[in-house]
From TrEMBL:
Domain DUF4031: 3-77
Domain of life the protein comes from: Bacteria
Name of the protein described by the UniProt record: DUF4031 domain-containing protein
Pfam families named among the record's database cross-references: DUF4031 (PF13223)
Species per Swiss-Prot/TrEMBL record: Streptomyces decoyicus
Amino acid sequence: MAIYIDPPTWPGHGRMWSHLVSDHSFDELHAFAAGIGAPRRAFERDHYDLPAERYGDAVRAGAVEVGSKELLRRLTAAGLRRPKNRPAPRV
């Protein structure tokens, strides 16, 4: 069980962004995000969007640094991937 973060390479709103995900549960992800002060509104379907200036906070708190493809692979393998335009899986 781990929290993963990819590099801040995603542009938007004049900033660069990272994605923060769990390979275990959304509860684990929400608890981690709350612990580093990420607002719940930063959660989008299956991940948190974190601005580049918060990347170090997440890593210092224990998030594992991985590339974007590896992050997606782990999220999908955990069964937590929720792509756009598809309903959330029933749990």
